[in-house]
Amino acid sequence: MLSFHVRADDAALNWRRTATGFARGSSRIDPYRHAALDEVIAVDGDRLLVCVREKNDGRTGPGSRPAAAAALSSIGAEGFDRLVGQCRDWPLQWHLLIVAGTSVRIEAGLWGTAPVFLVAGAADGAAAAQLDGDWDADRLMPGLKRASLDHGRAALWIAEYDLPYARQTLFAGLTLLTERGVAQWAPVPQGGHRLEIAYPEPWPRPVAGTLREGADPIAAWKRILRTSMRRWTRQAGDTLGVELSGGLDSALVAAMAARDADRPLPSYGLAVTGGADAVADQRARRVDLVASLGLSDIEIPMADFLPLGPGSKRVDGTASALPWDEGYYEAMDRLLECAYANGTRVMLTGFGGDELSMLRAVERQALGLEPMDDEPLSPPGGPAFLTAAASATLAEPGDLPPRAAMSGSSVAVAALSAARYLRHGIWPVHPLCTPELVHFCARLPAPLRAGRTTQRALLTRLGVSSVVTDPAYGDDLSPALVRSMRFAARPLLDRLFAAPLLAELGVVDGDCLRRDYAEWCGSEASEGSERFYATAILELCLARMV
């Protein structure tokens, strides 16, 4: 939501408005400007407040100013502090930045969407301290070196195709402001500046309860979701669109949004590859939903946009190669291009639905269900092509943030997927991550969460057929990854693995990597594509660094 470059030696200058935001000397602050967002700007002496937040049902809040408002004038300490407090209490996503002299403070709201990545360093060969922040980490990468790769996080990324949502990223010096986090960049007594990021207190964990007599949990589910969604859908109007995979989550969001729409709601989906029966099943579900909900649908065939395949913008250098960007970036990039060209500016997603029905281990046992299958993608030491030193890091504990208002995987997806939408001028909205809904579902008795009982019942009540509510197959994008890693992208991977930069850095054994990849390509195994993709995209990222 924010992009900025602040130099300490500009502190004596006054802030002024620019076409994209604010500037003083070579320092700048550029809010991400979008019809779904609102700005709060305030000045008190040498303090500047810039807050970017989601509009709430199309309404702005206290302190909102048009982007083209006139000169910056001081409102006094009391008014300034009051506005800061009002920004912190905003119910939807927000980020605020306060510059005070040579210090900078950045705070984040609880939704996790469009977080700020940070790089602190010295400008002009240590002539002046500077802090850079951006919602798009790709724009900060030129300031980082290959040697900044964190070997432990790189090993985990390769072994488990996983990048923990935390203040430390894959690269030392590139940090992430997590939900409700606070970053403080300030001078220190020994000289220079230090950047510190503080995690928040854990969000309270609700426990399952019992239903009151006569309660209708399905109606309550519907009411909470609809009330929450209207905070975005009514103000988005004709610019609203919805992602539609054909699964339970996207179907539920689409069904709720379509009931409130006064025109055919635009929907966008990826047509999966893989077995004929699974492909046909997804196709039938999407066709059923488009017809029953009266959607105006655009479908992108994944087979034409395979990960790192021929024509990939990530390979030719015209798109980000950040490892944590969407693995199926090529297909999603095409989907978002079509959505923007179709007039969509606010996109509803189905992220977070699986997590709403999660059962604790004791609940699964009480219901007679098998334990969750948490089988890792790799053996305990990671794939054989990791070096011994890299493998040893997998046993080290991570620096993870405390519990958020939504599940850890949901907030991570909301955060790390945001840039791909914003690059296309689209604001993403994740209704199933609404804290009120997350809390309500966690309070439901376990039998109502098991097997996603409430979601299926609500979809049925909304008129969705059993073709969708009880599918023969679940959505699986992985056949596209297997197909690309084994065939379409193999010339690229052979080239990247011939002299891997990760081998120079001591993370992988090049000979072992080439042998394992060749053996996998010659087999019919579907498992293993993730580790070779993870290695390849990390190689592409490192190749753009020095």
UniProtKB/TrEMBL annotation:
Protein name listed in UniProt: Asparagine synthase-related protein
SUPFAM superfamilies referenced in this protein's UniProt entry, alphabetically: Adenine nucleotide alpha hydrolases-like
Start and end residues of each Asparagine synthetase domain: 222-356
Name of one Pfam family that matches: Asn_synthase
Biological source species: Sphingomonas rustica
Entries under Gene3D superfamilies matching the protein: HUPs
